[in-house]
């Protein structure tokens, strides 16, 4: 996990406390589930690099929300997901990629209440802190290259889901989110790639626990 993540979560908690003290309808949400890579490219060494050969992974998020009206909310979140792939070429050379990202996002949601159930949909923007750990393994099993690559980029996301009010303060819900972001990584000196942009987005499907102040 990125070393900045705990600091970002602490900042979220401080933001929630401040909003509650100011009298806003505020909540904290903890989410967890699966990350499905976008798979926009079937190659990890083309000019359109992406998660085409990467595995299904897990993800988590902590968010603070403010509801200025019963039908609207603004949510600030810090998430985390990771995925990996091993890709072998015809010469027997294997390239191993371990990818992770910490998205910091701001999302506006429209809410449709119906008794204890609330459906929502929205969109947002954010900044993705991204990392690639690259290893190249020769046909004889020896590792002849290794790089840790870091990059960041702005992206956007779409969300939809529903919450069920269990008590006056506690909600349980589900949320689907689709994101697109393309950080640029510098592979200079490795596989003659130079600087390339990677599609680091995907779809998350989460269960959510929400606590209202």
TrEMBL record:
Residues 11-213 form the Outer membrane protein beta-barrel domain. Keywords: Signal. The keyword Signal applies. Pfam families: OMP_b-brl (PF13505). It comes from the Bacteria. Residues 1-21 form the signal peptide. Transmembrane segments: none annotated. InterPro entries: Beta-barrel_OMP (IPR027385), OMP/PagP_B-barrel (IPR011250). This is Outer membrane beta-barrel protein. It comes from Geomesophilobacter sediminis.
């Amino acid at each position: 996990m990125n070393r900045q993540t705990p600091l970002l979560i602490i900042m979220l908690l401080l933001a929630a406390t401040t909003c509650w003290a100011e009298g806003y309808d505020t909540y904290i949400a903890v989410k967890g589930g699966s990350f499905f890579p976008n798979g926009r490219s079937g190659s990890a060494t083309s000019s359109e690099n992406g998660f085409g050969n990467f595995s299904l992974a897990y993800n988590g998020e902590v968010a603070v929300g403010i509801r200025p009206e019963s039908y609207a909310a603004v949510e600030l979140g810090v998430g985390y997901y990771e995925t990996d792939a091993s890709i072998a070429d015809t010469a027997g050379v294997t390239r191993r990629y371990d990818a992770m990202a910490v998205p910091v996002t701001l999302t506006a949601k429209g809410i449709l209440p119906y008794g204890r159930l609330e459906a929502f949909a929205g969109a947002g923007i954010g900044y993705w802190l991204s990392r690639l750990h690259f290893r190249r393994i020769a046909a004889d099993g020896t590792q002849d290259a290794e790089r840790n690559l870091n990059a960041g980029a702005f992206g956007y996301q779409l969300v939809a889901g529903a919450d069920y009010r269990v008590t006056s303060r506690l909600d349980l819900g589900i949320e689907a989110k689709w994101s697109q972001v393309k950080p640029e990584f510098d592979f200079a000196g490795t596989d003659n790639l130079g600087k390339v942009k990677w599609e680091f987005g995907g779809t998350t499907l989460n269960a959510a626990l929400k606590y209202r102040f």
